[in-house]
Design a protein that fits this description.
TIM Barrel, 8-stranded parallel β-barrel, alpha/beta
Length: 301
């Protein structure tokens, strides 16, 4: 163990949805559907909402849209569930700007992905996140997803960052449960760890993670909440029983690049239009039966 707990870890726990951004056929943001989605999650027990993360197509939103969506979801949630704003960028200056937007909008915390494409060193990652944390006084959750960013923030770097005031958690999306255990050991409880991989979230929570920042929760909020709560309570068999219903969804929602499948699934459920922004395209025709079957197995159709 390297870092000792010197601050309060993030208080969020359970199933935290990585919310899609509903769009009309022309790619414009659909506010009516956004309001419907937030109510859907409040009514079905979702424990928190991440807005404009990767699943929210943050990469194709301009800054006014990005900040406007954070403000709107905070307004719609109205304090009923915590709202975490996705504010990461591969430019430290841009990440600071977006994080300030999150704070000004009233978000409860911000989620910052590792800089993508430019592949910083571990020292660069440390300085990037420390600089953002020092610039904006809001709880910040790190986000490690090397499968999308080509950048893997190692546990030793997370341990260094755990002592930086304001850094309160990490979304660890490698899908490696042993990585969760190592981060917990190295940080000594200074920050909260969240799974970012639905297929392994149950085991991650049983290993000490506080919850799951989830794609599957978009379509199955009640089941994801139940599974997370059972795992947090140490009920291994109960969590497994629920997760077995969800497993086909965990797999099917990644048959093409996220959020293509989950947006199509929500459209199939009648919750949002089919809109998605280029360079992403609607789900391939041949894969649609896979999504329908997974939805049916989970009892969602």
């Amino acid at each position: 163990m390297i870092a000792m707990a010197t601050q309060t870890p993030a208080p969020f726990r359970g199933s935290i949805v990585a919310l899609v951004t509903p769009m009309r056929a022309d790619g414009a943001i659909d506010d009516e559907s956004l309001a419907r989605l937030v109510e859907f999650h409040v009514e079905n027990g979702t424990d928190g909402i991440v807005v404009v993360g990767t699943t929210g197509e943050s990469a194709t939103l301009d800054t006014p849209e990005h900040c406007g969506l954070i403000r709107r979801v905070v307004e719609l949630a109205a304090g009923r569930v915590p709202v975490i704003a996705g504010t990461g960028a591969n430019s430290t200056t841009e990440a600071i700007e977006l994080t300030r937007c999150g704070k000004e909008a009233g978000a409860d915390a911000c989620l910052l992905v590792t800089p993508y494409y430019n592949k910083p060193t571990q020292e660069g990652l440390y300085r990037h996140f420390r600089t953002v944390a020092e610039a904006v006084d809001i709880p910040q959750i790190l986000y490690n997803v090397p499968g999308r960013t080509a950048c893997d923030m190692l546990p030793v770097t997370v341990a260094r960052l755990a002592s930086v005031p304001g850094i309160v958690g990490i979304k660890e999306a490698t899908g490696k449960v042993e990585r969760v255990a190592e981060i917990l050991d190295r940080t000594g409880g200074a920050i909260s760890v969240y799974s970012g991989d639905d297929g392994t979230a149950r085991e991650a929570i049983l290993a000490g993670a506080r919850g799951d920042i989830s794609v599957t929760a978009n379509v199955a909020p009640r089941l994801m909440h139940e599974m997370c709560m059972l795992a947090l309570g140490g009920d291994r068999e109960g969590a497994l029983a629920v997760d077995e219903r969800l497993m086909p969804l965990h797999k099917a929602l990644f048959v093409e690049s996220n959020p293509i499948p989950v947006k199509w699934a929500l459209h199939e459920m009648g919750l949002i239009p089919e809109g998605i922004r280029l360079p992403l395209t609607p789900l391939s025709e041949g894969l649609r039966p896979v999504i329908r079957e997974a939805l049916a197995k989970a009892g969602l159709l």
